[in-house]
Specification:
Length: 306
């Protein structure tokens, strides 16, 4: 039985009769961290010319444990990330998937009880003379991130670690005509799913808010795809998560009223908020879910003071 070693575009492969296996000289390499009640991993897309590199921090709490959104609610600490990236690049802020409300005793937290991914994009710095291809095509990218987080159940555990990933240069990366190794295919699938779970902007994503006595009223048109009749019948539900910490009394219920084409969500103000310091524009995320609380869609909402 003949075994032939050949070369194709810098990639070696072995053929055994009609079956060939391609070995890429460099592959995206990362290693998951197993912490106390949590697993984390740094994911990466394949590096391509004229395209941003997408990275993701995969976070998987154990069953009955949870982590926190950027506004954690009544308790907890959101994941914090400090990046170490190659010279000539810049990295975006974390993109958070739509959170869920997590009740415990008389408190309400905002976060995640299941595996989720926090996304960022790595791009060449603006104003650099180097073109994207000059920066990215010749050298592998070694990227690391220092993380700190809290994972909670009846008690909370805080930990730190550093995750890293090595991304092959464009000249060594698999081309679109080649079959990706299984771990790259998995990463690509995970990053695409994470993008789907991000809150999205819509034509109805702007509204107004007002403060009256000890309540705050959020008013906006329902985004496309949100069924107001199903909400009225309690077969579907919406939850609004303000980005500003200590704005609302998180454990207080959100009352929902329909006013023509608009919806008004009213919630008690936090006892810690200074009404004079509430900014003129507030942002938040609207979660659309079914009766069981399962995620359907999420929207970015921006509101100016009325």
């Amino acid at each position: 039985m003949n075994k032939v070693r050949r070369f194709l575009g810098g990639h070696s492969y072995f053929c055994l009769l009609s079956f060939c296996v391609i070995f890429f000289p460099t592959q995206v390499m990362s290693k998951a961290f197993q912490g106390k009640h949590i697993e984390l991993e740094l994911l990466s897309s394949v590096l391509k010319e004229n395209s941003a590199l997408q990275l993701g921090i995969r976070v998987k709490p154990e069953l009955h444990w949870h982590t926190y959104w950027k506004n954690p609610g009544d308790s907890g600490m959101p994941l914090r990330a400090r990046w170490n990236i190659p010279t000539g690049y810049e990295i975006s802020s974390l993109q958070w998937p739509v959170p869920t409300a997590i009740a415990a005793d008389n408190m309400m937290s905002y976060g995640y009880e299941e595996e989720h991914i926090l996304l960022v994009q790595l791009t060449p710095q603006k104003g650099k003379r180097n073109t994207r291809s000059e920066i990215s095509s010749e050298k592998d990218l070694d990227i690391s991130v220092e993380l700190a987080w809290a994972v909670c159940a009846d008690v909370c555990v805080t930990e730190k670690t550093t995750l890293s990933v090595s991304v092959p240069a464009v000249k060594n990366a698999p081309s679109s005509s080649q079959i990706l190794p299984s771990h790259l295919t998995l990463m690509s699938t995970q990053l695409k799913e994470a993008t789907r779970l991000l809150p999205r902007a819509s034509n109805e994503s702007k509204g107004t808010y007002s403060v009256l006595d000890e309540n705050i009223h959020f008013s906006f048109a329902l985004p496309d795809g949100v069924d107001s009749s199903a909400i009225a019948k309690n077969t579907m539900a919406i939850v609004f998560f303000p980005e500003m910490a200590d704005l609302v009394h998180h454990a207080s219920p959100q009352s929902i009223e329909f006013n023509g084409e608009r919806i008004v969500i009213t919630q008690s103000l936090s006892p810690y908020v200074n009404k004079e310091n509430i900014p003129s524009v507030l942002s938040g995320v609207l979660r659309y879910q079914n009766k069981k609380g399962e995620f359907i869609d999420g929207f970015l909402i921006s509101m100016s003071r009325h």
